[in-house]
Write a structure and sequence with these properties.
It is built from 22 helices and 18 strands. With about 600 residues, the chain is of the alpha/beta class. The strands form three sheets. The protein has an eight-stranded parallel β-sheet.
Length: about 600
C-alpha cells in the first residue's frame, strides 16, 4: 500500500531520534551519519528497535549527509547509498523476524534530507547543485519517499521540490519545519504562514513540524489550527527542552508524559506523529499500542482569513512607484557620541526636500554608531525618513530578527540590506565575523516578516549594486535573486565614467529593476586622486581628474564637484530611477547645491 493511501485511513507512527539516541546508547558523540561507514550494525540495530517499538516509518540516517560534514560528493553519495541499504535491510529483517508481510503490515522508509546550512556563503547554484546530488543519489537507491526535515525557511525549497518531482514524478514528498515555542523558525518563518504555503504547494504531499519544541507546546500550537486542506500534517516533537552538562546535551526521561501529549496531538487529526531529539524506542511503544485499531480522527479544516496588507506610504516610495526620481542622501554615523552636526545636516536635507536619508553601517568594518538606533533618533527629531544600512557581518539570525522588530516599533520602514565588508585580515584574531546570512537570505527573512508581522504597514528594502564585476550575467542573476526575495530597488556604487553608465543601462534592461544611481562628489584634487587610485572598482576618467587642477581654492573645487556631479546625473537621467548621493566628509551643503542644480535642469 502506498503511503498516501495508508494515510487516508490511518495515523502513521514515525520513528524517533537517531542522533541523540545513538549518542546515549553507545556513549559516542561522533557525527552519527558517519557511523553508516564505521558501525552499520549499530544503525541497523536502532532502526530495528524503532520498528519493534511500533514505528511504521523509518528515516534514513542521512540528515547531515552534505558537504558541511563530508569531504567530497563521492563520500556523501556513498554514505547515502549505504544508509538506504541499512534501513531497507532493517525492514526486511523485521518482516523475517515477525512473520509480518508488506501487504498486511506496510512499513515505509523515507529519504531523510536535512538543511544545508550555508556556512561559507556559497553561491546559490553550488548549494542547489549539492542538493541535486543528494536527490539523484536517493533516486538511484530506489527511494520514493522524500522527507525534507528541520527546515527553517523556504529559500531553496521551491527549487528543490521542483527538482525532486522532475527526477521522481511519483515521489511522496514531506516537508517539516523546526520552530520554537513562539511559533517561529530560526529563519523567521511563522507557523500560520508555513501552513498556508505548504498547503498551497502542489509538490508537497505532507507537511508539519519536527524538532524545536516539546510535545505540550506543539500540542498547544496545533490544537487551534483550521488547516486549509486535508493534506496530511506531521508532528514530531522533542522529548523536552535540553540542558547542558559538562559539554553534553541532556534530555530528561519523560516517556509517559510524552506519550500522553503525542496521543492528544493524534486526536487532533494529525496524520503523522513520532519523536525527534531526545526520544527513544521506549517513547513510541505506548503510542503504538493506543493507535492500534483506532479510527483516524479528521482534523479541523477551513479557509483562513486573508489579512489586509499595505505598503509604507513615504514620499520616497510614492516617487519610486510613480516614475518621479527620488533623492537619497547617505551620511556616515560618527565613531563617537557627537551627533549634533549630523542631526543638523539631516535637518538641512529635510529643508531641501531630500526624500530619504540613509545611514551606513560600519563601512570598511570599522566601528561606528549603530545606524538603526541613530536613524530612529534622526527621523523622530527632524521628520526626514531614514533608511539604515543593515549588515549581515555583525549579527547572527537571532539578532537580525530582533533588530528588525525593534526598528519597526521605532517607525523605521526603509532599509538597505548589505552583506557587509569583511573584517580586515589583521583584525581577525580579535574581531569575529558572523555572516549567518548573506544579503539575499536576509532579504528572504524580511520578506517573511513582511507577511507575518509587518503586513499592516510593510517595510521597503533595497540592495547595494556593485556593477563593476567581471560577469554582467552573474551580476544580473544576483539582482534577480534579490528581487525574488522582495528587494524593491538598488543603490549603485559611485558612477563616474561613461562605461559605468552603459553597464547600468545593460543591467537595467536585463532585470527591469529600480536602480538609483550613485553620485559621490570629488571635493579636491587630493580626494579625486585617492578615489581614482585607492578605491578598487571606481573608475575616475582622466578628463574628470583634469578638472581638479593643483592649487584651486575650496570654493573652486566645490564648483567643479557640482559641475561634474550634475554632468553624471545628466548622462544617466534617462536610465536610473533616482539619485543616491554619498556625502564626502559630511559636506551636506555641497549635496544640497548639487540637488538644486539637478532640479533646475529637470533631470
Amino acid at each position: 500500500m502506498k503511503i498516501g493511501e495508508f494515510l487516508k485511513e490511518h495515523t502513521l507512527l514515525c520513528d524517533g531520534a537517531m542522533g541523540t539516541y545513538y549518542a546515549a546508547k553507545f556513549h559516542n558523540e561522533t557525527l552519527v551519519e558517519r557511523e553508516n561507514f564505521e558501525h552499520p550494525e549499530r544503525i541497523a540495530q536502532i532502526h530495528g528497535e524503532y520498528l519493534d517499538g511500533g514505528a511504521r516509518l523509518l528515516r534514513t540516517n542521512t540528515f547531515a549527509t552534505n558537504l558541511n560534514f563530508f569531504d567530497s560528493i563521492e563520500e556523501m553519495e556513498n554514505n547515502i547509498m549505504i544508509a538506504c541499504q541499512i534501513a531497507k535491510s532493517a525492514v526486511e529483517a523485521y518482516y523475517e523476524k515477525t512473520g509480518l508481510t508488506k501487504e498486511t503490515y506496510p512499513v515505509y522508509v523515507a529519504a531523510d534530507i536535512g538543511t544545508i546550512y550555508d556556512m561559507e556563503q556559497k553561491d546559490d547554484s553550488n548549494v542547489l547543485a549539492e542538493y541535486h546530488h543528494i536527490v539523484d543519489t536517493f533516486v538511484s537507491a530506489g527511494m520514493d519517499i522524500f522527507w525534507l526535515e528541520t527546515q527553517v525557511d523556504v529559500y531553496y525549497l521551491k527549487r528543490l521540490l521542483a527538482y525532486i518531482k522532475e527526477k521522481a514524478p511519483q515521489a511522496y514528498v514531506m516537508v517539516s519545519f523546526s520552530m520554537d515555542k513562539t511559533a517561529y523558525s530560526k529563519g523567521g518563518l511563522q507557523f500560520d504562514r508555513m501552513v498556508r504555503l505548504m498547503s498551497e504547494m502542489d509538490e508537497v504531499n505532507a507537511y508539519g513540524l519536527n524538532c524545536g519544541m516539546e510535545a505540550a507546546h506543539m500540542y498547544q500550537l496545533l490544537k487551534n489550527v483550521n488547516f486549509p486542506s486535508e493534506k496530511p500534517v506531521i508532528a514530531l516533537p522533542n522529548a523536552g527542552y535540553p540542558y547542558q552538562l559538562r559539554g553534553k546535551t541532556i534530555y530528561g526521561k519523560n516517556e509517559s508524559y510524552f506519550q500522553k501529549m503525542v496521543l492528544q496531538i493524534a486526536d487532533l487529526g494529525i496524520d503523522l506523529v513520532g519523536g525527534c531529539c531526545g526520544t527513544t524506542p521506549d517513547y513510541l511503544k505506548e503510542i503504538a499500542e493506543q493507535l492500534k485499531g483506532k479510527k483516524k480522527i479528521e482534523k479541523k479544516t477551513g479557509s483562513p482569513e486573508t489579512p489586509a496588507v499595505s505598503r509604507t506610504e513615504s514620499v520616497f516610495w510614492k516617487k519610486l512607484q510613480s516614475g518621479e526620481k527620488p533623492f537619497v542622501v547617505e551620511l556616515d554615523p560618527p565613531s563617537d557620541i557627537k551627533v549634533e552636526k549630523l542631526v543638523s545636516g539631516a535637518q538641512l536635507l529635510k529643508e531641501h526636500r531630500v526624500d530619504l536619508l540613509t545611514l551606513s553601517d560600519s563601512p570598511m568594518a570599522r566601528s561606528r554608531m549603530d545606524a538603526s538606533l541613530l536613524g530612529s533618533k534622526i527621523q523622530r527629531e527632524t521628520g526626514i525618513y531614514v533608511m539604515p544600512h543593515l549588515s549581515c557581518r555583525d549579527r547572527n539570525v537571532i539578532s537580525l530578527r530582533g533588530t528588525m522588530l525593534g526598528d519597526y516599533v521605532n517607525d523605521l520602514r526603509h532599509f538597505l540590506v548589505v552583506t557587509g565588508d569583511p573584517i580586515a585580515q589583521n583584525d581577525r584574531n580579535t574581531i569575529t565575523q558572523v555572516f549567518d546570512y548573506n544579503s539575499i537570505k536576509f532579504m528572504g527573512l524580511l520578506q517573511e516578516m513582511n507577511e507575518d508581522q509587518f503586513y499592516q504597514d510593510r517595510i521597503v528594502y533595497g540592495g547595494a549594486l556593485n556593477y563593476q564585476g567581471v560577469g554582467v550575467d552573474a551580476i544580473a542573476r544576483r539582482m534577480k535573486l534579490k528581487m525574488e526575495q522582495g528587494c524593491s530597488f538598488f543603490l549603485t556604487q559611485p558612477i563616474y565614467a561613461d562605461a559605468d553608465v552603459e553597464r547600468i543601462k545593460d543591467l537595467k534592461e536585463r532585470t527591469d529593476a529600480k536602480i538609483i544611481g550613485g553620485i559621490m562628489p570629488l571635493v579636491s584634487r587630493k580626494n579625486a586622486l585617492f578615489i581614482a587610485n585607492e578605491m578598487p572598482g571606481m573608475h575616475v576618467p582622466p578628463e574628470t581628474l583634469a578638472y581638479y587642477e593643483e592649487g584651486m581654492s575650496r570654493s573652486e573645487y566645490e564648483e567643479v564637484a557640482i559641475r561634474v556631479s550634475v554632468e553624471i546625473a545628466r548622462k544617466m537621467s534617462s536610465i536610473v530611477d533616482g539619485y543616491y548621493f554619498m556625502t564626502p566628509f559630511n559636506r551636506v551643503e555641497l549635496i544640497c547645491n548639487i540637488i538644486e542644480r539637478i532640479r533646475e535642469e529637470n533631470l
